[in-house]
């Protein structure tokens, strides 16, 4: 049976979307453009776009028109698998390589598809959208450096090891710290294992459950907070060709003039002796944090004590 005109038009536009010729965010032909190209009435053109909108393939944007939806439904053939782990792994690795080199701002499904040499829409069989892709990237980053099966002796050594591993991951993947959010945490199993590791390290030390959880999340958040500028610094170095240390050296004369005004006497008294770096700040803060936790542990009441 011959399809009605609106269905034929919708089928052609659907094919272009599924083939990646029209990517998420691209404008699709307007009703006026459809009437001119296919020689149909305005009502038929409207019906074709309505059919695509009901399928979730397009959406209306005020002031712009009708565009390809950001989240397109998966297109499956009888032999395709909705979540082929091998293809998904390739997608995640390609996205991580792009993010490591350029950050996540310009990371799009189209860019990842181009790196893999496949149509953009085919990615949606394996990853729902950019948000899910970044979640998978975060989990894969933590999975890349797993915690040891046999932890070192002592709670402090265990927490220092976990923190050091997290710090290395943030340096290896500059986008990683910014991808995390403690207010709305990503439920990534390999990242959550660091919280589990910290909780296990603090078990049986007299600390109550609330204190242990706060300590575990605080340490995780501290390391992430110290690394939050990693991506910004990486991009600044990449674009300017000047490292952070070189930039600070270039500010020497300006800093000297500022301190010579005498308005910051305490700052001036230590400026020449202090040697700050991202690593020294991280190490100092972690040591201070763990020293405070050690005090908590020493003063904790033993289990079962009645006050």
TrEMBL record:
UniProt-listed Gene3D superfamilies: Homeodomain-like, Tetracycline Repressor, domain 2, Winged helix-like DNA-binding domain superfamily/Winged helix DNA-binding domain
Keyword Disulfide bond: no
Limits of the HTH gntR-type domain: 3-71
Pfam families per the UniProt record, alphabetical: GntR, TetR_C_1, TetR_N
Stretches of the chain forming a coiled coil according to its record: none
DNA-binding region as annotated in the record: 108-127
Keyword field: DNA-binding, Transcription, Transcription regulation
Domain HTH tetR-type: 85-145
Record's protein name: TetR/AcrR family transcriptional regulator C-terminal domain-containing protein
Organism: Streptomyces gottesmaniae
Lineage: Bacteria, Bacillati, Actinomycetota, Actinomycetes, Kitasatosporales
